[in-house]
Amino acid sequence: VGGRPVRDIRLDFPAFATAGDARPTAYLDSAATAQRPTAVLDAERDFLEHHVAAVHRGASAATGDSTTRFEAARADVARFVGAGEREIVWAQNATDALNMVALGIADASAGIGGADAARFALQPGDEIVLTEAEHHANLLPWQRVAQRTGARIVPVRVDEHGCWSVDDVAAVLTERTRIVAFAEVSNVTGQIAPVAEVAALAHRHGALVVLDACQSVPHRPVDFAGYGVDFAAFSGHKMLGPNGIGVLYGRDELLDSLPPARTGGSTITKVTMEEARFLPAPHRFEAGTQAVSQAVGLGAAVHYLEAIGIDAVAAHEEAFAERVVAGVSAIPGVRVVGPQVGERRGGLVSVAVDGVHAHDVGQFLDEAGLIVRVGHHCAQPLHRALGITATTRASAHVYTTADEADRFVDAMGEVRGFFGLGRKVS
Ligand code: PMP
């Protein structure tokens, strides 16, 4: 990957220090949360050991140093996603970031934020367009907005594989469409959305575009400014970074007028007993003491991914998915969800096994030394649309090997036989 053999890259990760094991456990659940390289752990530890002081508060050299490191991490993240520093707001994770947008819009609809925020206000009957494939993190916050404003959720239906197209979005847009929200890469199907095309289409209808970039930023090159999206969200823990830190991206000209979902210290210019005036973005959204060492760790994760090259990471993971899809598609009674053989997808593959519940598949794989994700992957409407209750997902990151892909395929070849179905493979 990026000129380095995977076995060399694995040495960067303490989690894979299993030199003595003949057959180490295969970690195939990076789409849920990724392993962390030593560089990230060291960056956090170094900050905590030598650089702790209140950020953006006080006038000492020590606070200046901690603030510089905190803001340098923001600049690293901004560069990585094609954004300006002012456009990067720290959040806890993608879920938190999506809630910040949704709650800001709900507040604006209730008159909070005054005339500046009126551009975000929804009226009863306005429409929020979401695909059926969305993660609950990009669905439930919009349900709350709909409940508070009287707006309506309009679904973009998926096909029999769980995929949707620009035409499917175009078909549901109306003059009432105010928001179009979707994931760049689905955490279940692995479909890669045509982000710039959808954004341009939505903007022609005067809608805001919200991108769930949780499964794209950690795995492939993104360019939020180039896409033309209005907001985007992603998590640190899926991109080799720490837990407890995520990012809300907002277009510069929008962020200063979106009401902050949380208010409190560090967000204001002037406070009286009755009211407050807020700082410009990003600080107006960062109420209270922030996850500083985690932000610094995320900056280190960006440096790590940049050193390998995010294009190389994407190519490596797409090769993993291609190998798994090709292998699994040849197994009777095992169905690949999402793009099929020969179609492009991100580095994850979900499958449904005829006659065997995903939880039983998961247990079988666990005994075979494979860590995967089973269940509805926080995407119940998608599974309902596909007529299945649960799937089994294998997902990759920079440290995943071709051998691990093959082990997953081999195990899937045996699972139905193990449960007494189909042709038994001994
Ligand atoms: N969106 C997608 C597409 C995801 O895969 C996930 C994580 N499974 C999330 C949102 C939520 O991320 P987090 O739990 O880190 O907030």
From TrEMBL:
It catalyses: (sulfur carrier)-H + L-cysteine = (sulfur carrier)-SH + L-alanine. The keyword Repressor does not apply. It holds the Pfam family Aminotran_5. PROSITE patterns: AA_TRANSFER_CLASS_5. GO terms for molecular function: cysteine desulfurase activity. Residues 27-408 form the Aminotransferase class V domain. The keyword Cell division does not apply. It comes from the Bacteria. Its EC number is 2.8.1.7. Its cofactor is pyridoxal 5'-phosphate. InterPro entries: Aminotrans_V_dom, Aminotrans_V_PyrdxlP_BS, Cys_dSase_SufS, PyrdxlP-dep_Trfase, PyrdxlP-dep_Trfase_major, PyrdxlP-dep_Trfase_small. Keywords: Pyridoxal phosphate, Transferase. Belongs to the class-V pyridoxal-phosphate-dependent aminotransferase family. Csd subfamily. PANTHER family: CYSTEINE DESULFURASE, CYSTEINE DESULFURASE 1, CHLOROPLASTIC. Catalyzes the removal of elemental sulfur and selenium atoms from L-cysteine, L-cystine, L-selenocysteine, and L-selenocystine to produce L-alanine. This is Cysteine desulfurase.
